[in-house]
Backbone:
Protein backbone atom coordinates (compact mmCIF):
# COMPACT_ATOMS: atom_id res chain seq x y z
CA UNK A 1 0.00 0.00 0.00
CA UNK A 2 1.72 3.18 -1.10
CA UNK A 3 0.73 6.63 0.12
CA UNK A 4 0.97 9.43 -2.43
CA UNK A 5 1.85 12.95 -1.42
CA UNK A 6 -1.51 14.04 -2.81
CA UNK A 7 -3.29 11.74 -0.33
CA UNK A 8 -0.95 12.81 2.46
CA UNK A 9 -1.52 16.55 1.97
CA UNK A 10 -5.29 16.14 1.54
CA UNK A 11 -5.56 14.34 4.86
CA UNK A 12 -3.10 16.70 6.51
CA UNK A 13 -5.06 19.84 5.59
CA UNK A 14 -8.50 18.39 6.39
CA UNK A 15 -8.85 16.68 9.77
CA UNK A 16 -12.20 15.31 8.56
CA UNK A 17 -10.34 13.03 6.12
CA UNK A 18 -9.16 9.61 7.34
CA UNK A 19 -5.46 9.03 7.94
CA UNK A 20 -4.13 7.39 4.74
CA UNK A 21 -3.76 3.61 4.82
CA UNK A 22 -0.13 2.57 4.70
CA UNK A 23 1.02 4.96 7.43
CA UNK A 24 1.84 2.82 10.46
CA UNK A 25 3.38 2.78 13.90
CA UNK A 26 6.25 0.49 14.95
CA UNK A 27 3.84 -2.41 15.54
CA UNK A 28 2.47 -2.19 11.99
CA UNK A 29 -0.75 -0.70 13.36
CA UNK A 30 -2.42 2.28 11.63
CA UNK A 31 -0.62 5.52 12.53
CA UNK A 32 -3.83 7.11 13.89
CA UNK A 33 -3.09 9.98 16.23
CA UNK A 34 0.58 10.09 15.17
CA UNK A 35 -0.54 11.63 11.89
CA UNK A 36 -1.94 14.56 13.89
CA UNK A 37 1.63 15.70 14.55
CA UNK A 38 1.85 16.79 10.91
CA UNK A 39 -1.64 18.32 10.95
CA UNK A 40 -0.65 20.32 14.03
CA UNK A 41 2.81 21.31 12.83
CA UNK A 42 1.53 22.74 9.57
CA UNK A 43 -1.42 24.58 11.12
CA UNK A 44 0.59 25.94 14.05
CA UNK A 45 3.58 27.06 11.98
CA UNK A 46 1.43 28.82 9.37
CA UNK A 47 -0.77 30.40 12.06
CA UNK A 48 2.33 31.71 13.81
CA UNK A 49 3.59 33.05 10.48
CA UNK A 50 0.31 34.98 10.09
CA UNK A 51 0.60 36.41 13.61
CA UNK A 52 4.11 37.68 12.98
CA UNK A 53 3.22 38.96 9.51
CA UNK A 54 0.14 40.89 10.65
CA UNK A 55 0.71 41.91 14.28
CA UNK A 56 -1.68 44.88 14.13
CA UNK A 57 -4.49 42.82 12.58
CA UNK A 58 -3.87 40.17 15.26
CA UNK A 59 -4.10 42.83 17.96
CA UNK A 60 -7.28 44.34 16.50
CA UNK A 61 -8.96 40.93 16.25
CA UNK A 62 -7.59 39.31 19.41
CA UNK A 63 -5.57 36.09 19.48
CA UNK A 64 -8.50 33.69 19.35
CA UNK A 65 -10.14 35.34 16.35
CA UNK A 66 -6.80 35.67 14.57
CA UNK A 67 -6.07 31.97 15.16
CA UNK A 68 -9.48 31.06 13.74
CA UNK A 69 -9.12 33.27 10.66
CA UNK A 70 -5.55 32.08 10.06
CA UNK A 71 -6.80 28.50 10.21
CA UNK A 72 -9.30 29.21 7.44
CA UNK A 73 -6.86 31.34 5.44
CA UNK A 74 -4.02 28.81 5.47
CA UNK A 75 -6.33 26.17 4.01
CA UNK A 76 -7.71 28.48 1.31
CA UNK A 77 -4.31 29.99 0.53
CA UNK A 78 -1.43 27.71 1.51
CA UNK A 79 1.94 29.38 0.80
CA UNK A 80 2.88 29.29 -2.88
CA UNK A 81 6.61 29.49 -2.15
CA UNK A 82 9.01 28.69 0.70
CA UNK A 83 9.64 32.42 1.24
CA UNK A 84 7.50 32.78 4.35
CA UNK A 85 8.56 36.44 4.64
CA UNK A 86 6.06 37.20 1.87
CA UNK A 87 3.24 34.92 3.05
CA UNK A 88 -0.20 36.47 3.34
CA UNK A 89 -0.50 38.47 0.12
CA UNK A 90 -4.16 37.44 -0.24
CA UNK A 91 -5.01 38.17 3.39
CA UNK A 92 -6.34 41.74 2.84
CA UNK A 93 -8.89 40.58 0.25
CA UNK A 94 -9.67 37.52 2.41
CA UNK A 95 -10.50 39.78 5.38
CA UNK A 96 -12.71 41.97 3.18
CA UNK A 97 -14.55 38.89 1.97
CA UNK A 98 -15.46 37.65 5.47
CA UNK A 99 -19.15 38.29 6.11
CA UNK A 100 -18.73 38.54 9.88
CA UNK A 101 -16.01 41.22 9.55
CA UNK A 102 -18.04 43.64 7.39
CA UNK A 103 -18.42 46.04 10.34
CA UNK A 104 -14.60 46.37 10.50
CA UNK A 105 -14.19 47.75 6.98
CA UNK A 106 -10.67 49.06 7.61
CA UNK A 107 -9.09 45.64 8.28
CA UNK A 108 -8.21 44.97 4.64
CA UNK A 109 -6.34 48.24 4.18
CA UNK A 110 -4.56 47.94 7.53
CA UNK A 111 -3.41 44.48 6.39
CA UNK A 112 -2.22 46.04 3.10
CA UNK A 113 -0.16 48.52 5.12
CA UNK A 114 1.40 45.67 7.12
CA UNK A 115 2.22 43.85 3.86
CA UNK A 116 3.78 47.04 2.46
CA UNK A 117 5.94 47.46 5.58
CA UNK A 118 7.17 43.87 5.27
CA UNK A 119 7.97 44.26 1.55
CA UNK A 120 9.85 47.46 2.31
CA UNK A 121 11.83 45.71 5.05
CA UNK A 122 13.12 43.08 2.60
CA UNK A 123 13.46 45.35 -0.47
CA UNK A 124 16.80 45.88 -2.20
CA UNK A 125 19.15 48.50 -0.79
CA UNK A 126 19.56 51.68 -2.83
CA UNK A 127 21.66 54.79 -2.17
CA UNK A 128 19.71 58.08 -2.14
CA UNK A 129 20.73 61.11 -4.22
CA UNK A 130 22.66 63.92 -2.58
CA UNK A 131 20.21 66.16 -0.69
CA UNK A 132 21.13 69.24 -2.75
CA UNK A 133 20.89 67.55 -6.15
CA UNK A 134 17.36 68.87 -6.81
CA UNK A 135 18.24 72.36 -5.61
CA UNK A 136 20.76 72.70 -8.44
CA UNK A 137 17.96 72.55 -11.03
CA UNK A 138 16.02 75.54 -12.41
CA UNK A 139 12.22 75.30 -11.90
CA UNK A 140 11.83 74.45 -15.58
CA UNK A 141 14.43 71.68 -15.39
CA UNK A 142 12.79 70.36 -12.24
CA UNK A 143 9.42 69.94 -13.98
CA UNK A 144 11.10 68.00 -16.80
CA UNK A 145 12.94 65.68 -14.44
CA UNK A 146 12.13 62.02 -13.92
CA UNK A 147 12.86 60.50 -10.49
CA UNK A 148 13.96 56.96 -9.69
CA UNK A 149 12.54 55.76 -6.40
CA UNK A 150 14.05 53.20 -4.01
CA UNK A 151 12.68 49.63 -4.28
CA UNK A 152 11.48 49.98 -0.67
CA UNK A 153 8.99 52.76 -1.55
CA UNK A 154 5.36 51.68 -1.16
CA UNK A 155 2.09 53.61 -1.33
CA UNK A 156 -1.14 52.39 0.30
CA UNK A 157 -4.36 54.38 -0.22
CA UNK A 158 -7.42 54.03 1.97
CA UNK A 159 -10.74 55.67 2.81
CA UNK A 160 -9.92 54.72 6.42
CA UNK A 161 -7.44 56.25 8.89
CA UNK A 162 -5.03 53.32 8.44
CA UNK A 163 -1.92 55.18 9.55
CA UNK A 164 -3.61 56.34 12.74
CA UNK A 165 -4.93 52.81 13.41
CA UNK A 166 -1.49 51.33 12.81
CA UNK A 167 0.14 53.89 15.10
CA UNK A 168 -2.46 53.49 17.84
CA UNK A 169 -1.74 49.76 17.94
CA UNK A 170 2.05 49.91 17.76
CA UNK A 171 3.01 53.02 19.72
CA UNK A 172 2.35 53.74 23.39
CA UNK A 173 0.39 56.94 23.91
CA UNK A 174 -0.44 57.45 20.22
CA UNK A 175 -3.63 59.46 19.63
CA UNK A 176 -6.95 57.67 19.04
CA UNK A 177 -7.76 57.38 15.34
CA UNK A 178 -10.27 59.93 13.98
CA UNK A 179 -12.50 59.03 11.02
CA UNK A 180 -10.70 60.19 7.86
CA UNK A 181 -9.17 58.86 4.67
CA UNK A 182 -5.40 58.31 4.80
CA UNK A 183 -2.93 57.56 2.05
CA UNK A 184 0.36 56.24 3.40
CA UNK A 185 3.89 56.42 2.05
CA UNK A 186 6.36 53.79 3.25
CA UNK A 187 10.07 54.57 2.96
CA UNK A 188 13.12 52.84 4.42
CA UNK A 189 15.86 55.37 5.15
CA UNK A 190 18.13 52.65 6.55
CA UNK A 191 16.78 49.32 7.82
CA UNK A 192 13.44 50.19 9.45
CA UNK A 193 10.45 51.00 7.21
CA UNK A 194 8.68 54.25 8.15
CA UNK A 195 5.01 54.84 7.28
CA UNK A 196 3.92 58.47 6.90
CA UNK A 197 0.63 60.10 5.93
CA UNK A 198 0.69 61.61 2.43
CA UNK A 199 -0.92 64.98 1.75
CA UNK A 200 -3.99 64.94 -0.57
CA UNK A 201 -2.93 64.10 -4.13
CA UNK A 202 0.45 62.83 -2.94
CA UNK A 203 -0.31 59.19 -3.74
CA UNK A 204 -1.37 60.13 -7.28
CA UNK A 205 1.86 62.09 -7.78
CA UNK A 206 4.15 59.30 -6.52
CA UNK A 207 2.35 56.60 -8.47
CA UNK A 208 2.70 58.70 -11.65
CA UNK A 209 6.44 59.04 -10.94
CA UNK A 210 6.70 55.28 -10.50
CA UNK A 211 5.17 54.86 -13.96
CA UNK A 212 7.85 57.11 -15.48
CA UNK A 213 6.10 60.51 -15.55
CA UNK A 214 8.21 63.67 -15.15
CA UNK A 215 7.71 65.74 -12.00
CA UNK A 216 5.64 68.18 -14.05
CA UNK A 217 3.46 65.51 -15.69
CA UNK A 218 2.88 63.88 -12.32
CA UNK A 219 2.03 67.29 -10.86
CA UNK A 220 -0.75 67.77 -13.42
CA UNK A 221 -2.26 64.41 -12.50
CA UNK A 222 -1.97 65.10 -8.77
CA UNK A 223 -3.53 68.58 -9.09
CA UNK A 224 -6.39 67.05 -11.07
CA UNK A 225 -6.92 64.51 -8.29
CA UNK A 226 -6.78 67.18 -5.57
CA UNK A 227 -6.42 70.89 -6.25
CA UNK A 228 -4.74 71.46 -2.86
CA UNK A 229 -1.87 69.08 -3.77
CA UNK A 230 1.35 70.28 -2.10
CA UNK A 231 4.33 69.34 -4.26
CA UNK A 232 6.94 70.68 -1.82
CA UNK A 233 5.57 68.73 1.16
CA UNK A 234 5.34 65.47 -0.79
CA UNK A 235 8.81 65.87 -2.29
CA UNK A 236 10.17 66.53 1.21
CA UNK A 237 8.70 63.25 2.49
CA UNK A 238 10.51 61.36 -0.27
CA UNK A 239 13.79 63.18 0.36
CA UNK A 240 13.63 62.66 4.13
CA UNK A 241 12.95 58.96 3.58
CA UNK A 242 15.99 58.55 1.33
CA UNK A 243 13.50 57.41 -1.30
CA UNK A 244 14.88 59.23 -4.37
CA UNK A 245 17.75 57.28 -5.85
CA UNK A 246 18.24 58.92 -9.22
CA UNK A 247 17.46 62.01 -11.38
CA UNK A 248 17.01 62.16 -15.12
CA UNK A 249 16.79 65.81 -16.21
CA UNK A 250 17.18 65.31 -19.96
CA UNK A 251 13.53 66.25 -20.35
CA UNK B 1 37.33 37.67 20.48
CA UNK B 2 36.17 37.03 16.97
CA UNK B 3 37.48 33.99 15.19
CA UNK B 4 39.89 35.14 12.51
CA UNK B 5 40.62 31.70 11.05
CA UNK B 6 39.65 30.83 7.49
CA UNK B 7 35.91 30.35 7.10
CA UNK B 8 35.92 27.88 4.25
CA UNK B 9 35.02 24.88 6.39
CA UNK B 10 33.02 24.34 9.58
CA UNK B 11 35.34 23.80 12.55
CA UNK B 12 34.88 20.70 14.75
CA UNK B 13 33.49 23.04 17.39
CA UNK B 14 30.11 24.31 18.60
CA UNK B 15 27.85 26.45 16.43
CA UNK B 16 24.33 27.78 16.93
CA UNK B 17 21.36 28.53 14.73
CA UNK B 18 21.55 32.31 14.27
CA UNK B 19 18.64 34.43 15.52
CA UNK B 20 18.58 38.17 14.72
CA UNK B 21 17.78 39.09 18.35
CA UNK B 22 21.26 37.81 19.31
CA UNK B 23 23.16 39.88 16.74
CA UNK B 24 24.67 42.42 19.16
CA UNK B 25 25.77 39.81 21.69
CA UNK B 26 27.23 37.46 19.09
CA UNK B 27 29.28 40.22 17.52
CA UNK B 28 30.45 41.48 20.93
CA UNK B 29 31.35 38.12 22.50
CA UNK B 30 30.36 34.80 20.92
CA UNK B 31 31.72 32.79 23.88
CA UNK B 32 31.91 29.11 22.96
CA UNK B 33 30.21 29.65 19.60
CA UNK B 34 32.64 29.26 16.70
CA UNK B 35 30.28 29.18 13.72
CA UNK B 36 26.69 30.02 12.77
CA UNK B 37 23.93 28.41 10.79
CA UNK B 38 21.11 30.25 9.01
CA UNK B 39 17.92 29.01 7.40
CA UNK B 40 18.40 29.77 3.71
CA UNK B 41 14.80 30.89 3.14
CA UNK B 42 15.05 33.70 5.71
CA UNK B 43 17.78 35.36 3.64
CA UNK B 44 16.14 35.37 0.24
CA UNK B 45 14.84 38.91 0.40
CA UNK B 46 16.53 41.49 -1.82
CA UNK B 47 18.20 43.55 0.89
CA UNK B 48 17.69 45.38 4.17
CA UNK B 49 18.76 44.38 7.64
CA UNK B 50 18.73 40.56 7.24
CA UNK B 51 21.18 40.66 4.33
CA UNK B 52 23.34 43.34 5.97
CA UNK B 53 23.60 41.31 9.19
CA UNK B 54 24.42 38.15 7.27
CA UNK B 55 27.15 39.91 5.32
CA UNK B 56 28.66 41.17 8.57
CA UNK B 57 28.49 37.79 10.31
CA UNK B 58 30.08 36.01 7.37
CA UNK B 59 33.14 38.22 7.70
CA UNK B 60 33.67 36.96 11.24
CA UNK B 61 32.32 33.40 11.36
CA UNK B 62 32.29 30.25 9.29
CA UNK B 63 28.69 30.01 8.06
CA UNK B 64 26.41 27.08 7.36
CA UNK B 65 23.38 27.56 5.09
CA UNK B 66 20.60 25.15 6.03
CA UNK B 67 17.73 24.91 3.55
CA UNK B 68 14.27 24.07 4.86
CA UNK B 69 12.20 24.58 1.71
CA UNK B 70 13.61 22.73 -1.30
CA UNK B 71 11.45 19.62 -0.84
CA UNK B 72 14.14 17.18 -1.97
CA UNK B 73 11.82 14.27 -1.10
CA UNK B 74 8.94 15.68 -3.15
CA UNK B 75 7.25 13.54 -5.81
CA UNK B 76 7.23 16.44 -8.24
CA UNK B 77 10.22 18.16 -9.84
CA UNK B 78 12.32 20.58 -7.81
CA UNK B 79 11.17 24.21 -7.92
CA UNK B 80 13.60 25.80 -10.38
CA UNK B 81 12.91 29.29 -9.02
CA UNK B 82 13.91 28.08 -5.60
CA UNK B 83 17.01 26.34 -6.95
CA UNK B 84 18.01 29.65 -8.54
CA UNK B 85 17.50 31.46 -5.22
CA UNK B 86 19.69 28.90 -3.44
CA UNK B 87 22.35 29.24 -6.10
CA UNK B 88 22.31 33.02 -5.66
CA UNK B 89 22.57 32.87 -1.86
CA UNK B 90 25.30 30.22 -1.80
CA UNK B 91 27.07 32.13 -4.58
CA UNK B 92 27.41 35.48 -2.84
CA UNK B 93 27.75 34.20 0.73
CA UNK B 94 30.14 31.35 -0.11
CA UNK B 95 29.31 29.49 3.12
CA UNK B 96 31.43 26.72 4.59
CA UNK B 97 28.54 24.27 4.25
CA UNK B 98 25.13 23.82 2.62
CA UNK B 99 22.63 21.29 3.93
CA UNK B 100 19.02 20.21 3.34
CA UNK B 101 16.61 17.54 4.59
CA UNK B 102 15.49 14.03 3.75
CA UNK B 103 11.89 15.27 3.62
CA UNK B 104 9.38 17.08 1.45
CA UNK B 105 7.47 20.29 2.06
CA UNK B 106 6.02 21.31 -1.31
CA UNK B 107 3.32 19.54 -3.29
CA UNK B 108 1.32 20.85 -6.26
CA UNK B 109 2.96 24.29 -5.88
CA UNK B 110 1.87 24.58 -2.25
CA UNK B 111 4.49 24.94 0.47
CA UNK B 112 3.49 23.46 3.83
CA UNK B 113 6.28 24.90 6.02
CA UNK B 114 7.01 21.53 7.65
CA UNK B 115 9.36 18.61 7.01
CA UNK B 116 7.09 15.80 5.83
CA UNK B 117 8.02 12.11 5.77
CA UNK B 118 8.54 9.75 2.87
CA UNK B 119 8.79 6.00 2.31
CA UNK B 120 12.21 4.44 1.86
CA UNK B 121 11.85 2.48 -1.39
CA UNK B 122 13.90 2.00 -4.56
CA UNK B 123 11.58 4.47 -6.30
CA UNK B 124 11.97 7.23 -3.73
CA UNK B 125 15.71 6.54 -3.56
CA UNK B 126 16.12 7.18 -7.28
CA UNK B 127 14.02 10.33 -7.15
CA UNK B 128 15.94 11.77 -4.21
CA UNK B 129 19.28 11.01 -5.84
CA UNK B 130 18.11 12.76 -9.02
CA UNK B 131 17.07 15.80 -6.99
CA UNK B 132 20.35 15.91 -5.07
CA UNK B 133 22.35 15.62 -8.29
CA UNK B 134 20.31 18.48 -9.76
CA UNK B 135 20.89 20.61 -6.67
CA UNK B 136 24.61 19.88 -6.43
CA UNK B 137 25.05 20.60 -10.15
CA UNK B 138 23.12 23.87 -9.78
CA UNK B 139 24.95 25.27 -6.76
CA UNK B 140 28.28 23.79 -7.80
CA UNK B 141 29.09 22.17 -4.49
CA UNK B 142 28.52 19.09 -2.36
CA UNK B 143 25.63 19.23 0.08
CA UNK B 144 24.88 17.52 3.39
CA UNK B 145 21.56 15.64 3.76
CA UNK B 146 19.92 15.48 7.21
CA UNK B 147 18.10 12.54 8.78
CA UNK B 148 14.50 13.38 9.79
CA UNK B 149 12.47 13.05 13.00
CA UNK B 150 9.86 10.33 12.48
CA UNK B 151 6.43 10.07 14.10
CA UNK B 152 5.21 7.21 11.93
CA UNK B 153 6.47 4.79 9.28
CA UNK B 154 5.40 3.71 5.80
CA UNK B 155 4.29 0.12 5.31
CA UNK B 156 5.82 0.22 1.82
CA UNK B 157 9.39 1.03 3.04
CA UNK B 158 12.01 -1.57 2.12
CA UNK B 159 15.15 0.24 3.33
CA UNK B 160 16.26 1.12 6.85
CA UNK B 161 16.91 4.82 7.26
CA UNK B 162 20.70 4.60 7.84
CA UNK B 163 21.12 2.29 4.84
CA UNK B 164 18.93 4.58 2.73
CA UNK B 165 21.02 7.63 3.64
CA UNK B 166 24.27 5.72 3.09
CA UNK B 167 23.11 4.66 -0.38
CA UNK B 168 22.09 8.25 -1.28
CA UNK B 169 25.54 9.41 -0.19
CA UNK B 170 27.22 6.64 -2.18
CA UNK B 171 25.26 7.41 -5.36
CA UNK B 172 25.40 11.22 -5.27
CA UNK B 173 28.59 11.93 -3.36
CA UNK B 174 26.65 14.10 -0.90
CA UNK B 175 27.68 14.21 2.74
CA UNK B 176 25.32 13.69 5.65
CA UNK B 177 24.11 15.84 8.51
CA UNK B 178 23.43 13.67 11.55
CA UNK B 179 20.78 15.12 13.85
CA UNK B 180 21.30 13.21 17.10
CA UNK B 181 18.09 14.56 18.62
CA UNK B 182 16.18 13.36 15.56
CA UNK B 183 17.70 9.89 16.06
CA UNK B 184 16.57 9.91 19.70
CA UNK B 185 13.07 11.15 18.79
CA UNK B 186 12.62 8.59 16.00
CA UNK B 187 14.07 5.77 18.11
CA UNK B 188 11.58 6.50 20.90
CA UNK B 189 8.64 6.90 18.54
CA UNK B 190 9.40 3.85 16.43
CA UNK B 191 10.93 1.74 19.21
CA UNK B 192 14.44 1.07 17.94
CA UNK B 193 17.85 1.43 19.60
CA UNK B 194 19.36 4.88 19.03
CA UNK B 195 22.85 3.44 19.56
CA UNK B 196 22.07 0.77 16.97
CA UNK B 197 21.08 3.51 14.51
CA UNK B 198 24.39 5.34 15.15
CA UNK B 199 26.26 2.03 14.73
CA UNK B 200 24.62 1.55 11.31
CA UNK B 201 25.17 5.16 10.22
CA UNK B 202 28.04 5.98 7.80
CA UNK B 203 29.77 8.31 10.25
CA UNK B 204 32.67 8.95 7.86
CA UNK B 205 30.19 10.84 5.64
CA UNK B 206 28.98 13.11 8.45
CA UNK B 207 29.98 16.75 7.97
CA UNK B 208 27.88 18.20 10.78
CA UNK B 209 25.90 17.14 13.85
CA UNK B 210 22.68 18.78 15.05
CA UNK B 211 21.30 18.87 18.58
CA UNK B 212 17.97 20.35 19.66
CA UNK B 213 15.21 20.12 22.22
CA UNK B 214 12.03 18.09 21.85
CA UNK B 215 8.60 17.94 23.49
CA UNK B 216 6.96 14.88 25.05
CA UNK B 217 3.49 13.72 24.05
CA UNK B 218 1.85 10.33 23.65
CA UNK B 219 0.20 8.44 20.82
CA UNK B 220 -3.34 7.02 20.69
CA UNK B 221 -2.24 3.97 22.72
CA UNK B 222 -0.64 5.96 25.55
CA UNK B 223 2.90 5.27 24.36
CA UNK B 224 5.50 8.06 24.35
CA UNK B 225 5.54 10.26 21.27
CA UNK B 226 8.37 12.78 21.12
CA UNK B 227 7.97 15.90 18.98
CA UNK B 228 11.00 17.61 17.45
CA UNK B 229 10.14 21.16 18.55
CA UNK B 230 13.49 23.00 18.82
CA UNK B 231 11.94 24.97 21.65
CA UNK B 232 13.96 24.04 24.76
CA UNK B 233 17.25 22.66 26.09
CA UNK B 234 18.77 19.44 24.78
CA UNK B 235 17.89 16.64 27.23
CA UNK B 236 20.51 14.50 29.01
CA UNK B 237 19.89 11.28 27.05
CA UNK B 238 20.54 13.20 23.81
CA UNK B 239 23.80 14.59 25.23
CA UNK B 240 24.73 11.00 26.11
CA UNK B 241 23.92 9.94 22.54
CA UNK B 242 26.17 12.76 21.30
CA UNK B 243 29.01 11.37 23.46
CA UNK B 244 28.36 7.90 22.05
CA UNK B 245 28.44 9.29 18.49
CA UNK B 246 31.54 11.45 18.91
CA UNK B 247 33.45 8.54 20.49
CA UNK B 248 32.91 6.64 17.24
CA UNK B 249 33.11 9.48 14.73
CA UNK B 250 35.79 11.70 16.21
CA UNK B 251 35.29 15.48 16.53
CA UNK B 252 32.66 17.07 14.28
CA UNK B 253 31.02 20.49 13.97
CA UNK B 254 28.12 20.39 16.49
CA UNK B 255 25.15 22.76 16.14
CA UNK B 256 22.56 23.74 18.74
CA UNK B 257 19.15 24.39 17.13
CA UNK B 258 16.68 26.52 19.09
CA UNK B 259 14.02 27.94 16.76
CA UNK B 260 10.91 28.38 18.92
CA UNK B 261 10.61 30.24 22.24
CA UNK B 262 14.13 31.44 21.48
CA UNK B 263 15.95 32.09 24.78
CA UNK B 264 18.23 34.94 25.79
CA UNK B 265 21.74 34.62 24.44
CA UNK B 266 23.38 33.32 27.68
CA UNK B 267 21.03 30.30 27.72
CA UNK B 268 21.85 29.41 24.12
CA UNK B 269 25.56 30.04 24.66
CA UNK B 270 25.50 27.70 27.68
CA UNK B 271 24.20 24.92 25.41
CA UNK B 272 27.08 25.60 23.02
CA UNK B 273 29.50 25.51 25.98
CA UNK B 274 28.14 22.10 26.91
CA UNK B 275 28.79 20.92 23.34
CA UNK B 276 32.34 22.30 23.64
CA UNK B 277 32.85 20.19 26.76
CA UNK B 278 31.58 17.10 24.94
CA UNK B 279 33.97 17.80 22.06
CA UNK B 280 36.93 18.27 24.44
CA UNK B 281 36.43 14.73 25.74
CA UNK B 282 36.87 13.28 22.24
CA UNK B 283 40.37 12.25 21.13
CA UNK B 284 41.17 14.18 17.94
Residues:
Amino acid sequence: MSVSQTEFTRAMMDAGQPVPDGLIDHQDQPAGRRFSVYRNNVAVSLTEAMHSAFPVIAKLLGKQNMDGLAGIYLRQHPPSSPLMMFYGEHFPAFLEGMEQLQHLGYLGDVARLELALRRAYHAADAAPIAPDALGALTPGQLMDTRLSLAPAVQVVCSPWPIHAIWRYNTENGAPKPEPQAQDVLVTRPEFDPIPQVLPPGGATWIRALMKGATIGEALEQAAAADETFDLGATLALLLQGGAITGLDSKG
Amino acid sequence: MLDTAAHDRLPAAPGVGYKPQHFAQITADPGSVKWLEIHAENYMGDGGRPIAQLRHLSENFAMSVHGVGLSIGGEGPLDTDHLARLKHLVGWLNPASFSEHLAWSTHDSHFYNDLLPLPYTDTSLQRICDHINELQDTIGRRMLLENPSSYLAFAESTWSEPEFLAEISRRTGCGLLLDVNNVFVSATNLDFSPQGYIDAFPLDKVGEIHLGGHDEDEDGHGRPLLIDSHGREVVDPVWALLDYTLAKSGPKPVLIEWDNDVPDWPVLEAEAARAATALERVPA
The CA atoms of residues 212 and 238 of chain B lie 9 Å apart. The radius of gyration of chain B is 18 Å.
